[in-house]
Each structure stands twice: as structure tokens, then as C-alpha cells.
Specification:
Layout: H1 4-19, E1 27-37, H2 45-51, E2 55-60, E3 66-71, E4 78-84, E5 89-94, E6 100-104, E7 111-123, E8 126-137, E9 142-150, H3 169-176, E10 182-186, E11 190-201, E12 217-219
Parallel strand pairs: 6-12
Antiparallel strand pairs: 1-2, 1-11, 2-3, 3-4, 4-5, 5-6, 7-8, 8-9, 9-10, 10-11
Protein name: DUF4412 domain-containing protein
Length: about 220
């Protein structure tokens, strides 16, 4: 009996098993940003109106790093946020401050209150589900509600974010296995809404995920 066809079949199946392994998304997702106030006399409203801008670009790489670039913010608004998988720290830079603030996200800052899920809307032509987590931030005595709408595309490998516990990030990605297509972040007096308007899978240069050396850093 000729064993060559059998060996060939085994070889094909062996390599096919590797080719079907999902790769975590690398690329850029662009979001429209809206800040909505629940009342007129919100404390620090002038600052909050300029903090988040009107557009957010989120860069994901294959290592699990996340870079967020805020566009059209005011002079006191965000410049960028960055999560580095290598040291599990989250960094934030404001335009008007000469310091980058950062902290370790291995601890959960919110006390769990409630979780719900269901069907969401269609975004970029894809039907979405949602996960909503309610938490309480004890130091600021602030209730926080995150509504994370997702479609399952593009794929994110949850294990890359297993140490990112704050704001239930790992829990959300573990269930969704994809970035949010829409995030509604309710912070009490106001809501920030991020809605995806473009997804660009592409290889990214590692320089995007490097903290500038010429800016002081402060842990908080």
C-alpha cells in the first residue's frame, strides 16, 4: 500500500490547523465622540466639553498595547492615552500639562453593582450585542455605567488583556472577544459616547506605542 497519500493528507491537516488560529486585531478604529450633559449646571462643564474632543482614534497592536489619540479637544483636553501590556500601566497626557500620569491597572477601582446584556443596534453594517456593567467608585462616590456594544469583529485575543482589570476591561473583552463598536460611558452628570465610523486592519509601527522620553512621568 502506498503511504504517500496518507502522509500528504496528515501534513495538510497539520498545517491547516495552524492556519485557522485567529490572530488578534492590529490596526486602527476611528470613533465619533459625543459628550452629553444631563443638566445645565454640571460642575466643571467648560472643561468636560473640551476634554474628549469629537473624534477618537484607537490603535491596537498584536502585543496587546492600546494607543488612544483624541482629536479636536480643547487646550485643557486629552492629548492621548496609552496602555502598555509589558508593564500593565495606563498612561494619560493632557494638552495643558507637562507630565504624563500613569497607574497600574491590575486592581479594580470600581465596586461591582450590576451586569446586564442584550441586543444592541447595527453599526458599520454589523449587528451588535451589548454588555452593560454598573460599578461604584468609592473614593469619588461616583456611579459608573459602561455599555459596551460589540459585533465580534474584529477579533481580539482576550488573554492579551488578562491583567487589565480596571473598569472591567478584561471581563468585557473576554466576553466580547472584540473591541467595542460603541461605548456609552455614563459618569453621573454626563455621558461620553464613542461610535465606530471606520475600522482599518493594518500593521502598525511600534513607535506609536512608545512613551516620550522628554516628558516627566508621575504615578498616581
Amino acid at each position: 500500500m502506498n503511504s504517500k497519500p496518507i502522509i500528504l493528507l496528515i501534513t495538510i491537516l497539520f498545517f491547516a490547523s495552524f492556519s485557522t488560529v485567529k490572530k488578534s486585531f492590529e490596526g486602527v478604529i476611528t470613533y465619533k465622540v459625543e459628550t452629553k450633559f444631563k443638566k445645565n449646571d454640571v460642575p466643571h462643564r467648560d472643561y468636560l466639553e473640551q476634554k474628549f474632543g469629537d473624534t477618537l482614534k484607537v490603535y491596537y497592536n498584536k502585543n496587546g498595547d492600546i494607543f488612544k489619540k483624541y482629536l479636536n479637544t480643547g487646550e485643557k483636553g486629552y492629548d492621548f492615552n496609552l496602555y502598555l501590556n509589558s508593564n500593565n500601566h495606563y498612561y494619560a497626557k493632557w494638552k495643558n500639562l507637562d507630565t504624563i500620569y500613569h497607574y497600574n491597572v491590575s486592581e479594580q477601582a470600581l465596586e461591582f453593582v450590576n451586569k446586564t446584556s442584550g441586543k444592541s443596534e447595527q453599526i458599520l453594517g454589523k449587528s451588535c450585542d451589548y454588555i452593560q456593567i454598573e460599578g461604584f467608585e468609592p473614593s469619588g462616590k461616583q456611579k459608573v455605567i459602561q455599555k459596551y456594544s460589540y459585533s465580534g469583529f474584529p477579533y481580539l485575543e482576550p488573554e492579551l488583556f488578562k491583567n487589565f482589570k480596571d473598569f472591567y476591561t478584561y471581563d468585557l473583552i473576554k466576553e466580547a472577544k472584540s473591541p467595542f463598536m460603541k461605548m456609552e460611558l455614563d459618569l453621573g452628570d454626563f455621558i461620553v459616547i464613542y461610535t465606530a465610523i471606520q475600522i482599518e486592519p493594518k500593521e502598525l509601527h511600534q513607535n506609536i506605542f512608545v512613551i516620550p522620553n522628554d516628558i516627566p512621568k508621575k504615578e498616581y
